[in-house]
Amino acid sequence: MFNNNSSFISWEKACLNVFRLQRRIYKSVCVGDFSYTLRLQKLLLVSSSARLLAIRMVADKVVDKNLDYSDNKVSLNFLEKFQINNTLFQNANNWSPGKYKEVIISQTSLGKFSSLQIWSIPDRCWQFLVRLIIDPAYIAISFPGNFSLYFSQLVHKMQKSIFLKLNKQSYGLQKRILIIHFLNKVENFSCSFLLKKILAPRSIKLGIFRFLKLGLKLDLNYKSDKINPLGFLLVNVLFNDVDYISNGIRVGENLLVFLKPSENEFNLLNKIVEFFYLAGINKEELSTVDLFSVQNGFDFLDWHYKLYPTGEIYCVPSSISYNIFLRRVKNIINNSNYGAKAKVAKLFPIIQEWNSYNKFCDLKSSYFSLFFLKKRAFKSFKKESKQDLYSSKILLNRAFNSKLFNRSGMDFSLPSCNYSHLIFCSNFLNNQVKLNFSICIHCGMSATLSS
User: Fold this and answer.
1) Which tens digits make up the pLDDT trace of 134-159?
2) Among 112, 154, 170, 418, which residue is least crowded by beta carbons within 10 Å?
3) Phi, psi (5° rounding) for residue 399?
4) For the Reverse transcriptase N-terminal domain, which residue ranges apply (predicted)?
């Protein structure tokens, strides 16, 4: 009975309730009503929908069975979820975290080792709950070129913004490209400077301060968002001023700056170093700084950009990402331990991800064509005794068909408040007819609806 009660909860309705409150928080920050923002954040803190979503994100989605968790638990039953829900309801305003466990993860492809903080399940639930509260307030004041928080949803919007910066109307041929890489882990920083920049009630700031005193690490890598949600959010709040100084595009630890002919890159770096001094961050956080010409080309986030003398933009997958993709696909095709149907099941998500990520790139070149991969896969399928010519062709179409989508799982992740229409409505009378005038503050789109 307990195991089936989670199916009675309407997760779509819970996401809608949380998103409505987040939109109200976002609007109040946009108009500068911060006292109303704090009241809405306190209301969202005690919301049952927000608590249930936070528990669901930790217990059902962010589970990695290969990691050694601090409380020796990988999944939760319904009774344990109910107990965590009561704990969050009673102690959310005065949360005291426990100790964390540090796990060493080896990256075999890079030959490096990285450390990962694993907090207990109740602590991670509280972190996700605080993330739901601070997110809309931070997005309202964040720089439009920051795509770190919702990178998976806004990756192609970020690519479009790069195209707009490099087109003929923006005089892209006259610009230079400055790419700054920060270190993933921000270890030394001023805790008081960070807490002053957070717009949240005092009880939430007190819980964040306790996490920081226990050693919560700030991680700039956007891939660590699900494992370390609070640390990833706090480091974006801390680096918000860097985005305004550079006036570029930042995704995690990567910062892309478009320099005009009159701008000096040394002045920009000096301003960033001055901000680091105010925030208590060492200058060594600047890992590498690279300067490129748009006509020679540059790599950014697995894409290679180049401008022709005519002003046309050339965007293709980078050679490093393409070689990694080929290695993953060839290892599956050449593996004799898998049958043809098992190979199709493993190939389809990889090829689907590749096609969806690079759908706005120029893949007409024979270098990026999947023809030879299809030919090699067809030979591998046909070698199996259970498959003939026609069945191998059907399996090949299933593996390399980009028009198919995996509809087995449903995603209830919340959208961003910043990248959708934000409508402010006002009622007025016009010729004895009541009209509802609405306008979006982002795009300026207006609509007049009679009631």
Assistant:
1) 999 998 888 888 888 888 778 888 99
2) 112
3) -75, -35
4) 9-87
Q: Report pLDDT for 201.
A: 93
Strand order in the sheet with 303-307: 298-300, 303-307, 313-317
How far is the C-alpha of 341 from the C-alpha of 332, rounded, in Å?
12
User: Could you tell me which of 237, 267, 18, 268 has the C-alpha nearest to residue 148?
Assistant: 237
The residue count of the chain comes to 451
Closest CA relative to residue 191, chosen from 214, 170, 172, 169? 214
Cα Rg of the chain (Å, integer): 25
Average pLDDT over residues 54-79: 65
Q: Quick one: average pLDDT of 341-347?
A: 91
Nearest Cα neighbor of 92 from 199, 15, 204 is: 204
CA distances, 78 to each of 56, 58, 105, 227, 383 (Å): 11, 13, 31, 22, 48
Question: Which tokens go with 250?
Answer: 């930042």
The DSSP call for residue 143 is -
* 103 or 400: which leads in pLDDT: 400
Quick check: 231 and 223 in contact, CB under 8 A?
A: no
**pLDDT at position 428, please?**
39
Residues 6+ apart with CB under 8 A from 133: 25, 41, 44, 45, 50, 200, 204
- What is the Cα–Cα distance from 44 to 14, expressed in whole angstroms? 12
Q: Report d(CA 70, CA 208) in Å as an integer.
A: 19
Q: What single letter denotes the amino acid at residue 147?
A: F
Q: Can you say how many angstroms the Cα of residue 444 is from the centroid of all Cα atoms in its chain?
A: 27
- List b or e across 71-90, with b for residues whose CB sees 16 or more CB atoms inside 10 angstroms: eeeeebeeebbeebbeebee
- CA distances in angstroms from 277 to 50, 194, 216, 252, 448, listed in the order given: 37, 13, 21, 21, 50
pLDDT tens, 356-369? Answer: 899 899 888 878 88
Query: For residues 174 and 258, what is the distance between their CA atoms, to the nearest angstrom?
Result: 10
pLDDT in tens, 279-314: 888 877 777 888 898 989 999 988 999 999 888 999
Average model confidence (pLDDT) across the chain: 81
Amino acid occupying residue 206: L
**What percent helix, strand, coil does the chain show, rounded to 5?**
50, 15, 35
pTM of full prediction above 0.90: no
For residue 432, how many other CB atoms are within 10 A of its CB?
5
Rounded Cα–Cα distance for residues 7 and 408 (Å): 16
